[in-house]
Amino acid sequence: MEHCLKSSAKSTKLREIGNKFYADKNFFDAILKYNESLCYAENGSDNMGLAYANRSAVYFEMKLYEKSLRNIELARANNYPEKNYEILKKRESKCQELMKNSLKTATDLSFFKLSYEPNKDYPSIANCLKLKSDKKYGRHIITNKALAVGDVIAIEEPVCTVLQEEFLYQRCSHCLKSNLLDLMPCSLCCQVMFCSNICLQNAYNSYHRFECPVSAIITTSFLNANMRMALRTFFCALAIFDDSLEKLMTFLTENNLNSILDCKAELNFKQKILAINSLIFDESIDVNVILFDELFQLNDKLKEMWISHRDEIITFLKKHTQIGSLNYHEIYGWPLKKGGLYDPEMENFKGTLAYRRGVSSFANGSYLFCSLVNHSCAPNVAKVFIDDKIIMIVQRPIKAGSQIFDNYGYSFTNIPREIRQMELQKHYRFTCNCEACSENFGLLPSLKVVDKIAFRHAKKSCQELANMTQKQAKQRIKEISGIIQKNFDNFPSVEICSLAESFQACMEIMLKPEILIP
Ligand SMILES: C[S@@+](CC[C@H](N)C(=O)[O-])C[C@H]1O[C@@H](n2cnc3c(N)ncnc32)[C@H](O)[C@@H]1O
């Protein structure tokens, strides 16, 4: 199949398309095409060197001299034609000359650290969070301490992630960093890029050596995100057990872990696999296993596995696809292109303002703790992502002993109750009985203003969001947190709901890349 194979002709063509974008000063699309060109370049051909050299030209124009120099080095190390060395040499000395004017990326992440002592066995979460279980809610998380607005209670790494197809040439397949598109290709397949040799090695030692021969099919076939996640989880698990399916299956049948919070020792990857395996799933969710069947026929190593253990593999993949639809998270981030599609907009809601989020999803991931947090249409925590890490932050005061509630994408402020309940039943198989559903809170435009001073703050915050800097957002979060905390008796008022939206927006602004690619 054409898109599976390295091809000098295709690589050259992609670079030429990139050159047209470069001539039009559309640097983002130029680098994307150079990245694709790198992925299709045959090893040992000069296409690699040429693509790196062209990328160095773009970074030079963007005043990213360090990146430009690194790409010049890569060009030389990858068969850039010697007869053109003079061009690189000139660019190199200009970079060195201009280095002190280099643009720097310096996002301040100091806000995003745990507000409490970490749990000693699972340090990604605050030690005040406890697991409970009952008939109504299943497993759920409560806090044994009162939590204040703005508290950071979890910073969790994923067990597994999968990039959406559209972002394959924009982010590291392993850690999801964009690195301003400064990525390196897999030397064998054409669909995967990495930000560093470390990510390349880690991915390859784990899942990528299984996926690499069929990566084009995985990304272009009809496998949905949950199926791709199931497949990657399977390969990661297999790698941990020395590629032995017997060992993996025996481990899964002989061991059990109710949840991540029952693990009384620092977690290793085997326990993570057990914990993922223990997440809630629904057997009635239909999984088209024929697609897996087809995939495993495409490569000798996979075929061998399939012939000897088809039933066990199918059981694993089916279960994990079903786990995915109830538990896996979409990962959000800002577009990297200047003036990209998702720039935030303000919308008017009867005198108040609501902010449309500027971020969009680019990957899916599995998170052990966050998968134990239940839904409310009026949640008490908000989430943001730093690359592949999920950050959970308190968005309204939470009393000691109360449950932590996330939102699964259905908020009472903009979706009517019947629709929310129907969708939650359809996608998550439960009837929502949260306070917004049971007390039938109205949509944002129908809510009342209760406190005029807080309302003025809410309006001002919304108006300023569009042009807010990271520093201002950090300061504003503190102010908003204080106002929500103090006026929470008025919930659900226009001003508190509007401030909660600004709160989420401010966190996202703090994570907005300082440099976007024009
Ligand atoms: C991500 S899991 C949350 C943890 C889950 N309760 C468990 O026991 O593993 C999502 C599932 O939790 C349940 N759930 C989430 N929110 C709920 C709520 N507000 N009321 C009842 N069940 C809920 C649903 O079964 C849903 O499919």
From TrEMBL:
Lineage top rank: taxon: Eukaryota
Under the heading InterPro entries, the entry gives: SET_dom (IPR001214), SET_dom_sf (IPR046341), TPR-like_helical_dom_sf (IPR011990), Znf_MYND (IPR002893)
Question: Which GO molecular function terms does the record list?
Answer: N-methyltransferase activity; protein methyltransferase activity; S-adenosylmethionine-dependent methyltransferase activity; zinc ion binding
Q: Keyword check for Electron transport, yes or no.
A: no
Q: Where is the MYND-type domain?
A: 172-212
User: Which keywords describe this protein according to UniProt?
Assistant: Metal-binding, Zinc, Zinc-finger
Protein name stated in the entry: Uncharacterized protein
Organism, scientific name: Chironomus riparius
Q: Recall the taxonomic lineage recorded for the source organism.
A: Eukaryota, Metazoa, Ecdysozoa, Arthropoda, Hexapoda
